Amino acid sequence: MKSGCFVMKCGGSTLAALPDTFFLDLKKLQDEGMIPVIVHGGGPAISDTLGKLGIETEFVNGLRKTNEAVLDVVEMVLSGQINKQIVRKVMQFGAKAIGLSGVDGHLIEAKPVANAAEVGLVGEVTNVNAAIIEAVVQMGYMPVIAPVGIGEGAQRYNINADTAAGAVASHLGVERMIVVTDVPGIMKNVDGEKKVLPVVTVAEIERMIESGDIYGGMIPKVRAAMECIQGKVSEVVIVSGTEPEVLSKVLRGDSIGTRIQR
Ligand SMILES: Nc1ncnc2c1ncn2[C@@H]1O[C@H](COP(=O)(O)OP(=O)(O)O)[C@@H](O)[C@H]1O
Ligand SMILES: CC(=O)N[C@@H](CCC(=O)OP(=O)(O)O)C(=O)O
């Protein structure tokens, strides 16, 4: 992949709260020749629609228990509602974007996760067809990707968005993944005060999961980060979407959020 390309994962927790400056920043970066590849979540919107339809939903270690009925809603909300909302918003601020789901052109190939007996149709990424992303970028568009995967027998899978973003970053071989969420980074209680850790290593993350300092939705983020920094990706940065011009700040190396390094 060309230099200047980075993967940005945008969590469902923060999508509605993203300020206009976030989208203006994306447009500025695209104009400057930077290449954002967006992978998005949408967990809260999925839960909301499942609730309206009276379908029960449950999480096991941060993964949604998924059957075909749940998968219908996951695909509808992620590839339909949320993906198009993001594409429309990016275009409204003047940038060029094309929305895809992991199903399109076998973009994200998947197989059942190891604990499928417990969580059902949740996928683990087996391959990312980077050539599709590269072709979209070549045409001057920002790819916006929904984390639904496809596997053997054309089976769809629900993939955690952090996991999908990490796999996309690894397969594209980008230098950096930026995880945009609703907290300013990985936080820790220091002398009774919650502080953002500027840098954490893999060993520190393992200790923080063990001690319970990292829990819930932060776990798939740090697991995806630890997985992708084993390869070409040199760092994963976790930041808040409400911080003005957060992407430009990370890319120019400002001290912001939490950097996860090898
Ligand atoms: N150590 C930690 N520092 C910051 N947030 C944490 C930590 N451990 C767990 N969290 C939780 O992780 C959440 C972010 O994950 P999640 O809600 O899944 O967001 P997203 O939709 O962006 O993926 C935070 O709102 C916070 O409640
Ligand atoms: C398997 C699994 O749990 N999939 C997630 C996919 C969306 C997601 O990950 O969205 P966030 O980034 O907003 O959490 C789900 O069904 O909620």
TrEMBL record:
It is found in: Cytoplasm. The keyword Electron transport does not apply. InterPro entries: AceGlu_kinase-like_sf (IPR036393), AcgluKinase_fam (IPR004662), ArgB (IPR037528), Asp/Glu/Uridylate_kinase (IPR001048). The gene is argB. The lineage of its organism: Bacteria, Bacillati, Bacillota, Bacilli, Bacillales. Its main location: cytoplasm. This is Acetylglutamate kinase. It comes from Paenibacillus ginsengarvi. The keyword Glycosyltransferase does not apply. Pathway: Amino-acid biosynthesis; L-arginine biosynthesis; N(2)-acetyl-L-ornithine from L-glutamate: step 2/4. GO terms for molecular function: acetylglutamate kinase activity; ATP binding.
